[in-house]
Design brief:
Length: about 100
């Protein structure tokens, strides 16, 4: 199969998947599909959300969240990401950007 046909098939399959996903139940994943997030972007952002959740609740940040190799490609300030104080809205906006 040539590249053009593969791309057309993938676009069609994405369209089918978008019909199967309930956007109200899974808004993040619809957002990721619509904005063509790459796999590493989704993984990193989900871990960042988990870290922020731990920080908001005042819980210990587990080693599972500390994936410096995943975060390194996005030039994030890891000392701020692993801080013990609750995250700010500005900090979350920075990670989204």
């Amino acid at each position: 199969m040539d590249v053009v046909k593969e791309v057309k098939l993938l676009k069609y399959q994405m369209s089918l998947m978008k019909h199967m996903i309930n956007a109200e139940e899974h808004p993040f994943f619809m957002f990721a599909i619509d904005h063509e997030f790459e796999e590493n972007q989704v993984k990193a952002f989900l871990k960042i959300l988990g870290l922020c959740s731990c920080r908001i609740k005042g819980e210990e940040i587990f080693e599972w969240y500390q994936n410096d190799q995943l975060f390194s490609q996005f030039n994030l300030w890891l000392n701020k990401l692993y801080a013990s104080e609750p995250p700010t809205l500005e900090e979350l906006k920075m990670y989204v950007a």
